[in-house]
Amino acid sequence: CNKGAYGKFVVVKHENNLTTLYSHLSLQKVKVGDTIERGGLLGYSGNTGYATGPHLHFSVFSSQTFKMGLSRVCGLLPYGGDLNPADYL
């Protein structure tokens, strides 16, 4: 197994009890434990994982329901109670 469904991804846990997922990246520019400033570079859009072309897959989760599990097929699989990102703009 050399890639999971989301390919290369970054997970950001926010102070407001939200967790965001940025996936299918070609390159991650942050590592676990980094503090990220608003507007900071997390990575570059790509075509990793189960994707049909370069794009950014963006998801918003409640931090209370967000989990990292193992996919039945390959790699890590982030999951949880998805929220509508428009509610937080």
Structure explained in plain terms:
This protein is mainly β and 89 residues long. It has one domain: Glucose Permease (Domain IIA). Helix content is 0%, strand content 40%. The chain contains no helices and seven strands. The strands form two sheets. Strands 1, 2, 3, 4 and 7 form a five-stranded antiparallel β-sheet that branches. It has a two-stranded antiparallel ribbon with strand order 5-6. A hairpin with a 4-residue loop joins strand 1 and strand 2. It is globular, with a radius of gyration of 13 Å.
Helices and strands, with pairings:
Elements: E1 8-13, E2 18-28, E3 43-45, E4 57-62, E5 67-70, E6 76-79, E7 82-83
Antiparallel strand pairs: 1-2, 2-3, 2-4, 4-7, 5-6
Q: And the CATH topology?
A: Glucose Permease (Domain IIA)
Mean of pLDDT: 84
Describe the global form: globular
SS elements, strand count = 7
CATH superfamily: Glucose Permease (Domain IIA)
Percent of residues in beta strands: 35-45%
Known CATH architecture: Distorted Sandwich
Number of domains: 1
Coarse structural class = mainly beta
- CATH C-level class is Mainly Beta
Give the biggest sheet.
5 strands, antiparallel
Helix residue percentage: under 10%
- Measured on Cα atoms, how large is the radius of gyration? 13 Å
Q: Number of helix segments?
A: 0
- What gap, in angstroms, lies between the N and C termini? 37 Å
Poorly predicted runs: none
Order of helices and strands: EEEEEEE
